[in-house]
Backbone:
């Protein structure tokens, strides 16, 4: 990661949620053992965690992050932890668990979000578990992710539009202060928008759900109207990395579907006022954003369920959660963790109305496949 850049530049960021099939990258972390709890040797003395490829990989020293974050747990339980970073997104992680359903390898999985958990394959590979310290997590995050506790919140973030103030600002385009989908529907604005494929990127899927919630629930209009209007102009890239690259290098691309923490990331990486700003969707006097909640879950019939449950509990403590903000660039779910100074530039949940409340989990589960099919029809026309 480049830490010194000219104004307006950003360090390269990778999308942990883009589907890239490949071999697993396994990072094994071992800590010299001294025991508080004594666990049997052999398979019972090893915990395997599946996650996506860039889990905790956006900090200052990703090569040592696992030992720093999980070292205390390994010492306490005299256990080896193997973080298996699969070269895929959370959908691919679930696919891997399904192939191993008859003989599970992993004990814990991290990264299943509040849309993916609604799909039956996710629940089929998980065992419900309520952590003993679940009180550390806000009830609203639990309700947004999974009230049945197949997964427990690990981190969360707000998906929103960001823009480069070097390209566009409230002086040149006053509408950016209160940006509506109607604004984005003009040829000029639509041509400047870069988003991600909702089939391949959870960021792109969150934007699709954002538009559906605004049109169907707030405006009372057919959500397909806006996409039909802009599909010939907006750039849709396979994943977040591709979208960021286009947005950051092409002068005519002003808006990017990304995360509300991007200005904080820019400030932290450049040690200067960020060039990027957030433009949450506006309607009738209020701003809105979609909340993505990523969870941690217990693999069904995993090798070491007792140890896995202890690990899930540990991941809710400040020993882990204090690392989330500057390594995941998502918000920690532990409500006792103090956010770093850089997060004063991030979009906060209290700054917006959360669109998830307008689209019940049951409605998303029942309609997601249809919505994606209809989106495909629009873009194939």
Residues:
């Amino acid at each position: 990661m480049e830490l010194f850049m000219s104004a307006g530049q950003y360090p390269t960021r990778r999308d942990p949620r883009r589907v890239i099939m490949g071999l697993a990258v396994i990072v094994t972390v071992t800590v010299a053992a001294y025991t508080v709890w004594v666990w049997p040797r052999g398979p019972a003395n090893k915990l395997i965690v599946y996650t996506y490829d860039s889990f905790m990989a956006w900090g200052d020293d990703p090569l040592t992050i696992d030992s720093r974050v999980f070292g205390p747990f390994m010492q306490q339980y005299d256990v080896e932890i193997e973080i298996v970073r699969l070269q895929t997104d959370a959908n691919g992680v679930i696919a891997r668990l399904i192939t191993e359903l008859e003989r599970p390898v992993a004990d814990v999985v991290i990264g299943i979000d509040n849309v993916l958990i609604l799909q039956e394959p996710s629940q089929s590979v998980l065992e419900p578990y309520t952590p003993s310290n679940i009180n550390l997590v806000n009830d609203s995050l639990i309700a947004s992710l999974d009230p049945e506790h197949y997964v427990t919140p690990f981190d969360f973030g707000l998906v929103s539009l960001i823009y480069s103030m070097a390209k566009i600002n409230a002086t040149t385009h006053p509408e950016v202060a209160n940006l509506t989908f109607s604004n984005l529907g003009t040829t000029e604005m639509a041509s400047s928008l870069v988003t991600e494929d909702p089939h391949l990127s959870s960021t792109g899927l969150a934007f699709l759900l954002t538009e559906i919630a605004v049109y169907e629930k707030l405006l009372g209009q057919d959500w397909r109207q806006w996409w039909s209007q802009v599909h010939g102009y907006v750039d849709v890239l396979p994943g977040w990395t591709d979208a960021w690259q286009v947005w950051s290098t092409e002068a005519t691309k002003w808006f990017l579907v990304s995360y509300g923490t991007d200005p904080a990331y820019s400030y932290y990486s450049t040690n200067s006022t960020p060039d990027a700003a957030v433009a949450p969707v506006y309607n009738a006097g209020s701003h809105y954003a979609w909340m993505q909640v990523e969870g941690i879950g217990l693999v069904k019939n995993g090798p070491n369920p007792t140890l896995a449950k202890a690990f899930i509990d540990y991941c809710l403590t400040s020993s882990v959660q204090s690392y989330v903000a500057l390594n995941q660039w998502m918000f920690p779910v532990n409500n006792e963790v103090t956010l770093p100074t850089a997060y004063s530039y991030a979009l906060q949940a209290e700054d917006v109305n959360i669109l998830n409340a307008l689209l019940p989990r049951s409605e998303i589960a029942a309609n997601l496949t249809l919505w994606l099919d209809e989106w495909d029809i629009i873009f194939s026309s």
Q: What stands out?
A: The longest helix spans residues 361-380. The longest strand covers residues 151-164. The chain has two domains: 25-157+293-343, 158-291+348-380.
